[in-house]
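step: validate -> pass
step: tokenize input -> pass
step: predict -> running
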Amino acid sequence: MAYDYLSIRLCSRIHRTILASACLALSALIGFIASAQSRETTVSPYSITIDATSIVSQSWWTVPGITPSIWTSDPESSDAYRTSEPRVLELAPGQYKFISFTFDFPFTVTREGAVDFSHTLDQCVGGRGTNTLIVRCKRTYPYGGEPEYSLTP
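step: predict -> pass
step: emit ->
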């Protein structure tokens, strides 16, 4: 009986060791596959020009997480970008947001390196399909066109 107890205990330790080793090997394999996939899908950022020089009077703008914030205590000493000159940003494909003190909107950088945004912004924003986002308005005004979304839930 003592022999059976020892062999059972030894077998259970061997099984746990094998199981732990298999888990470790599997997690390393998953990490390797994820790393290989992320290298394959990594896209270089594109040079996207933000041109808000049409805005009068001069103001400041930001693309959160990319450019300096406009929400500092003293905008005059801030590093935030001003509307007085176009700026080139290196942006990977994805969703972003242009923000000024009176106007903000989402925009997208496509996999082709072009900007896209809602058609409802056409009166104030230009450059769709190019690498330049042109902001023409200091604030949005009522738009008389059809919305791009359903009015019913």
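step: describe -> The two ends are 71 Å apart (CA to CA).
step: cleanup -> pass
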